[in-house]
Specification:
Layout (H helix, E strand, L loop, with lengths): L1 H5 L3 H14 L1 H10 L1 H8 L3 H7 L1 H4 L6 E4 L6 H6 L8 E5 L16 H12 L8 E7 L5 H4 L14 H19 L4 E4 L4 H11 L5 E3 H21 L8 E4 L3 H18 L3 H4 L3 E5 L2 E2 L25 H8 L3 E4 L9 H10 L4 E4 L11 H6 L6 E4 L6 E3 L2 E3 L2 E2 L6 H11 L6 H12 L4 H5 L10 H18 L12 H8 L10
Parallel strand pairs: 1-3, 2-3, 2-4, 4-5, 6-7, 6-9, 9-10, 10-11, 11-14
Antiparallel strand pairs: 7-8, 12-13
Helix pairs in contact: 2-3, 3-4, 8-18, 12-13, 12-19, 15-16, 18-21, 19-21, 21-22
Bound molecules: oxaloacetate ion (OAA) and magnesium ion (MG).
Length: 496
């Protein structure tokens, strides 16, 4: 830690950590587990975003498996080249939408590597059971295509049938090589592929889309716990989103589902208090242009409204959620409008990394005179406003996917069901303490994340057993204890 702290540039710390992971894996995980709050922003968001942007020029050696279009017809062989044979979790990207940074081609590899290091540090999955994969079908990023250090295919992205066939070959090769119980986490695919891949493969594979489902689960947990601070139940609230992509529509649907389960109201009803704004304005049923299929459930009846500010004034939301991938879009006027409507406006600026956050923590507190309950996707430091210290929460899917994955693995789950996501949300919300609430926090600190992950894993496994999706028998009695007993801990073994 002394050496790491000598590096003042975040990217240098990242490179030092990657070197350490290579040189002494146990020490890497020991450091990460014992200093999670300090090191999460180094190996993960936001620094991993910069690392992906510069991945070619800081490249040392491959940390995961690259599968390029050139290997069409041979993907199974390529998988067999990976030295570890017993794989439990794969995180795969095609690099088309890396965080809120756009198409970074196969330089997106930093993301599966970072996510899987959290699977181990936060969720206790053995490092050797984790496989980071980047599918290289080209990139439409002109700068990268001309960059002398770019490490991927120098061609535009394969699309349509060529893309679908390549992914189909990949998905069947994975199942053939690792069996039915390997978890495949889709990460940072573009909208147009993410929804389709999830719908297509959730019936035949154990798949989980972190950006749609993981983000939804973590945000729902924050909303459930925020009720302690703002009062009411979820159905008493009105939600407005800026951004109607994977995160926006994923969260919206999970909120609607939770309300529907709790009140027995049909989904079509519970969706009605959830509104989404995209680049064309409020999504309404009378919109002339065609609305993409994943936005259709949110096209409610309302006159057209062009801007977010107008939508805030018209809809009067109690909760404002940013999933736009565009920084600074929660302007002073927007936040002030939220503050004039609500005593305690709930504001979530979820886009990553920090540069893409819809507003900063400081702005959220200042523009609401310290009344906002605020959380963001990327971490912000505590804010001193009018002599009081405000601690922002981090609504990042890192709270969910490690424990969620552990729950699937330990129960031998074969499919992911939405009820497992709801179980994970409730488990996370239940980990927020009175002490956290007193500080205005809607998420527990990351310091206790391994304990939190064990609780999430236990609830996910319990639900999987209940739904008949778990293949590991017999059902362990104390699932929290069992989860803890499954977790990898970095210690040196005695060889005597
Ligand atoms: O990686 C993160 O910090 C959260 C996430 O999935 C994304 O922004 O795409
Ligand atoms: Mg992501």
């Amino acid at each position: 830690m002394n050496i790491l702290r000598e590096y003042k540039v975040p990217l240098q710390r990242y490179m030092a950590m990657m070197d350490l992971q290579e040189r002494n894996e146990k020490l890497f995980y020991k450091l990460l587990i014992d200093n999670v709050e300090e090191l999460l922003p180094v190996v993960y968001t936001p620094t991993v975003g910069e690392a992906c942007q510069k991945y070619g020029s800081i490249f040392r050696r491959p940390q995961g498996l690259f599968i390029s279009l050139k290997e069409k017809g041979k993907i199974l062989e390529v998988l067999k080249n990976w030295p570890e044979k017993s794989i439990q979790v794969i995180v795969v990207t095609d690099g088309e939408r890396i965080l809120g940074l756009g198409d970074l081609g196969c330089q997106g590899m930093g993301i599966p590597v970072g996510k899987l290091s959290l699977y181990t540090a936060l969720g206790g999955v053995r490092p050797s059971a984790c496989l980071p994969i980047t599918i290289d079908v080209g990139t439409n990023n002109k700068e990268l295509l001309e960059d002398e250090f770019y490490i991927g295919l120098r061609q535009n992205r394969a699309t349509g049938q060529e893309y679908a066939e390549f992914l189909e070959e990949f998905m069947s090769a994975v199942k053939q090589n690792y069996g039915e119980k390997v978890l495949i986490q889709f990460e940072d695919f573009a909208n147009h592929n993410a929804f389709e891949l999830l719908v297509k493969y959730r019936k035949t594979h154990l798949v989980f889309n972190d950006d749609i489902q993981g983000t939804a689960s973590v945000v729902l947990a924050g909303l459930i716990s925020a009720l302690k601070l703002v009062g009411g139940t979820l159905k008493d609230h009105t939600f407005l989103f800026l951004g109607a992509g994977e995160a926006g529509t994923g969260i919206a649907e999970l909120i609607a589902l939770e309300i529907s389960k709790k009140t027995n109201a049909p989904l079509e009803e519970t969706r009605k208090k959830i509104w989404l704004v995209d680049s064309k304005g409020l999504i309404v049923s009378s919109r002339k242009e065609s609305v993409q299929h994943f936005k259709k459930p949110w096209a409610h009846e309302h006159e057209p409204v062009k801007e977010l500010l107008g939508a805030v004034k018209a809809i009067k939301p109690t909760v404002l959620i940013g999933t736009s991938g565009v920084g600074g879009t929660f302007t002073k006027e927007v936040i002030e409008a939220m503050a004039s409507i609500n005593k305690k406006p709930l504001i979530l600026a979820l886009s990553n990394p920090t540069s893409q956050s819809e507003c900063t923590a400081e702005e959220a507190y200042r523009w609401t005179q310290g009344r906002a309950i605020f959380a963001s996707g990327s971490p912000f430091d505590p804010v001193d406003y009018n002599g009081k210290v405000f601690v922002p929460g981090q609504a990042n899917n890192a709270y969910i996917f490690p424990g969620f994955g552990l729950g699937l693995i330990m129960s031998g789950a074969i499919r992911v069901h939405d009820d497992l996501l709801l179980a994970a949300s409730e488990a996370l919300a239940a980990q927020v303490t009175e002490e956290d609430y007193a500080k205005g926090l809607i998420y527990p600190p990351f310091t206790n994340i391994r304990k939190i992950s064990a609780h999430i894993a236990a609830k996910v496994a319990e639900k999987a057993y209940e739904l008949g999706l778990a293949s590991r028998l017999p059902h362990p009695k104390d699932l929290v204890k069992y989860a803890e007993s499954c977790m990898y801990t970095p210690v040196y073994h005695s060889y005597r």
